[in-house]
Amino acid sequence: xxxxxxxxxxxxxxxxxxxxxxxxxxxxxxxxxxxxxxxxxxxxxxxxxxxxxxxxxxxxxxxxxxxxxxxxxxxxxxxxxxxxxxxxxxxxxxxxxxxxxxxxxxxxxxxxxxxxxxxxxxxxxxxxxxxxxxxxxxxx
Length: 140
Prior knowledge:
Elements: H1 2-14, E1 32-33, E2 36-37, H2 51-62, H3 67-80, H4 85-92, H5 98-109, H6 128-138
Helix pairs in contact: 1-3, 2-3, 3-5, 5-6
């Protein structure tokens, strides 16, 4: 399992998906590095995972025989990469059971770049009670 984590992390690093700071969509601040004066940067946008990065993640998740290993890897992916709500939905749909989808989506919420879109994850669940639990979790 450690080897798989290393391979996945190395692949995400090579494709530029590794996190390089807090998972905030917008950052503000000024940049003045030494002798070179640079104008202040008010905001910049962090993009979600590319189609190639998502394909790699989904292939890795689907290669797992059991949801518990899939959940471990999915959590690692969202911790080290940049993902949007749509990406979270695709990852969640690789799980066999609603309880694992719920556990993943609860964990992934703090890493999601567009949290305001999380309510559209209703279709990820077989049972509405699990969706309601997710909404209670994020709006508590």
